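Q: A reviewer asked whether we had any structural model of the full assembly, not just the individual parts. We don't, so I'm hoping you can provide one. Inputs are below.
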Amino acid sequence: MMRAQAFLAAGVAAVTVLVAAAVAQTTRQPTAKDLRPVPSFQNIADQQARSIALFEEAGKVLQHARCVNCHPATERPLQSDAMRPHQPLVVRGADGHGVPGMTCNTCHHAANFDAARVPGHPQWHLAPASMAWEGRTLGEICAQIKDPNRNGGKDMAALLHHMAEDTLVGWGWAPGPGREPAPGTQAAFGGLLRAWADAGAHCPPS
Amino acid sequence: MTTHDVALSRRAMLKGAAGLVIGLYLPEKARAQSGAAHAFRRAAGGADFAPNAFIRIGADDTVTVLIKHIEFGQGPFTGLATLVAEELDADWSKVRAEHAPSNTDFYKNLAFGVQGTGGSTAIANSYDQMRKAGATARAMLVAAAAQSWGVPAREITVERGVLRHTGTGREGRFGQFAEAAARQPVPADPPLKDPSVFRLIGRDDGSVKKLDSAAKSNGTAQFTIDMREPGMLTVVVAHPPRFGARVASFDASAARAVQGVVDVKQVPTGVAVYANGTWPAIKGREQLRISWDESAAEKRSSDQLIEEYRALARRPGRIAGAHGDAITTLARAERIIEAEYVFPYLAHAPMEPLDGFLGWDGQRAHARFGSQLQTLDHQTIATVLGLKPEQVELETMLAGGSFGRRAQQTSHLAAELAEVTKAIGPGRPVKLVWTREDDIRGGYYRPLIVHRMRGGLGDGKIVAWTDTVVSQSILKGSPFEAVMAKGGIDATSVEGAKEIPYDIADFRCDLHTTDVGVPVLWWRSVGHTHTGYAVECFVDELLQATGQDPVAGRLAMMGKAPREAGVLRAVAELAQWSGPGPVNGRARGVAVVKSFDSYVAQIAEVSAGDDGPRVHKVWCAVDCGVPVNPDVIRAQMEGGIGFGVGAALYGEVALDEGRPVPANFDTYRVLRIHEMPQVEVRVVNSSEKPTGVGEPGVPPIGPAVANAMARLGLGRPRRLPLVRAVA
Amino acid sequence: MALAIKVNGTMQSVDVDNDAPLLWVLRDALGLAGTKFGCGVAQCGACTVFVDGKPMRSCTLPISALGTREVTTIEGVSGREAEAVQQAWIARDVPQCGYCQSGQVMSAVALLKQIKQPSDRDIDLAMNGNVCRCATYARIRAAIHDAARALEG
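A: Here is a predicted structure for the entire assembly that you could use as a starting point for your response.
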């Protein structure tokens, strides 16, 4: 765990500690600004390989801070491009909207408030624990999002609609200043997933 | 909601009992809350009794105590009023507190010689003075009653605001005799009570409640930022991104286009945006385009400074304290243990960022803000505006915390307030507001410090100790330099390190004073913020290396430190100390630090959490002499511990090529409620003169936590904060 | 822009920018200064008010987004929970500098309106967004428990 690492680093002798500051920078994936267009995958003859390649491209979005921050592995969301634990301490609560006295919309209002760099959306909330992506491989995430028991009971059509049309998902491409948008566009992301499904919705091996 | 309209009217010259002074007339509401203006008022008809500069008694029996120290949470309103009420035998429910106005003659801190608050001196320097003020008033009330009743004064008793003569069965309230008391001669040397008959001082049954809790629980307490006046402009200033930079040029056209922005002016500290309200001022500032001249700016990063400091610490510095021959003994020691401790710059981050109100008509000025060094701030405003001090009035407001931030040896806030006022010209009252980003990136930090410690062991004991401290000087270049920084040694850099409570035959502490372009300031407990950590971690490490118990080992070396030993024994008893553990994953760490003449020992119970040490419980024993208000003392220990835990775990203003990295509470992490340990405090009985409690709760907690971490196998952190930021 | 907003039960007309946060409208336009500025970025909770009865940070809510929702500030908060909380705050002498306490009180009242007997964990989570640099947290926790007991009795 990166957090434990930063903590432990403080405990060792001074000489080593002096370089520890650099350790703290996160497990975040390198990000691309754009997504490859679907036609560029046509040269992959094998349908399963093409499907996997399409999913891996879409994975640049799925594993981006904009998505993972609110699909955390614990009760607590992450925050910022560096994916640090959300300050203050907030938790998912019963319905993903927080707990009494400290719901998401205590601070996050209906739209981004750029002056304070506080993001917003009318439905701002956390994904359920079953949809946690933090720390998961792309293969694991793929299996997870296809599984109606873990994706909120969605069939493929509903899943594709959610990814391509949901405006809270869409926030990931319009996160306001100080936050890196997810790569590409929501439409391109939706297109990749549709093509992935059309090619058999195969998952990466890991 | 007009109650918040604090319309300042023309001031009036009023004659107070203690001499001709200048008062300032305010509407009743504002006066009751913020105080100073009321100071020298005597109501029409002279019904009020004002025996001295500190006490006003009204016909309605209200006893108003003028408090010369700023109230920003440490409790001087309650504490100083308690001292007066004790000797006055007042009814506590009739006692009120207000800030005294700025007047060095009447209201100087007897420890400083100027009016100001700091060094946890409020109770210590006021103890005799305020009791005497109360005793004087009591004697005059008694004399008035004796005259009225035709009985000897010595036969009159006073209890809870009621004067009685048992022989004749007469009794009367303070208010009834206020007017007559004002005509009595002022006794030169009224007798003070023997502590054995105190009724309010030291009382711990919950009856001596704080005077300011209600107004601070319902939103009516007035702070500087709450000032509103017709025609008032709100001002924010764009400060340079690096310390020492200056404005080269700026383009304000976009800023001026923001609705509500009234004007933009260059001032010595940056570019000031004047607006009708705070929001347009902030928005306008965002639109400024400023080119900074950074030729003289500080451009080093924290990591670079630390490397430079560590290199310096390898060489001996200027001796701050020494006995025996530590160098020789160290060289001959059976075993040498070395440790280097690195401390970051820290922001104070009081909840109310810096702010100030100033009205100026060209001839006279009145300022209202949370001034902590009134004498300096008053003079600074006069100087900037080209006025004589008597043309300036300074009214102290309640402040939303300080932790040292408002005690500015440079009066930089008062100077900026006066400069922005001067730049816009007379007749435009201004409220200067710093935002949180201004606060955290604005400098005046606790310095960055390195301690290099070496300990010599022999025969299972500590035989030699050296400590080389590297730090900027807080006092250098300030008015306090002459008194507190003698012989090239800034006492605030080495307090708590140049003499330690442990009997170690050969001892040396030396200091390198560095020159860095980052403005620094005292931060709650000043030098003890780092010396407490370095000394208490290192002694713990040496005790562990020699197989000694952290409590017993310390006590064995405390032969010449009875009060340190006293609180250490007390806290060990309170915590039922049976060694450091760990037991069931929890270890206990100890530290004891004397600061500001108060003695505090703490034991922290700590476990290793996912994202850092988890401090479950802290036991604390404090010896601060006569405990004036035990519950305020406990509150200060609780608060000091929380403040200290937050700083130890998370506090750091890192510099990146001179630019402060954190900007707000998301990146300058502070303690939140789920991280607050349980705290149990024992106030040790003492008949010594009372000493302060605002700061002394802070120093022991960092090392106590670190010493517990060592017992958890996490090592004693050599670089703070204990949890490095994940930015 | 002229707007009509309902604050503490009264309609108020204010002339402010669309993007002006509710905090500054309350403080600068309406003189309701009990609601405090501490960070401006929803990190400290000093600006907590109720919007349609739910706690919100007023520093990040642009006035244009308020709509017809009703605002309650520390000056207007009332009811059993508010009385119990404020009495408990005074009885415990919770405040030190006092600056954050309007927000603390609002958050505590909101908690007790929803959870009658909050656990320490409930308190930790509900009060986590309210920073107190004086670290009065231990007394805040105790006072919330006191208030809960008083409401039960």
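A: Points you may want to mention in the reply: Chain B touches chain A at residues 282-283, 286, 303, 306-307, 310, 339-342, 608, 610-613, 654, 665-666, 669, 672, 674, 709, 714-719, 721-727 (CB under 8 Å). Confidence is low (pLDDT under 50) at residues 1-47 of chain B.
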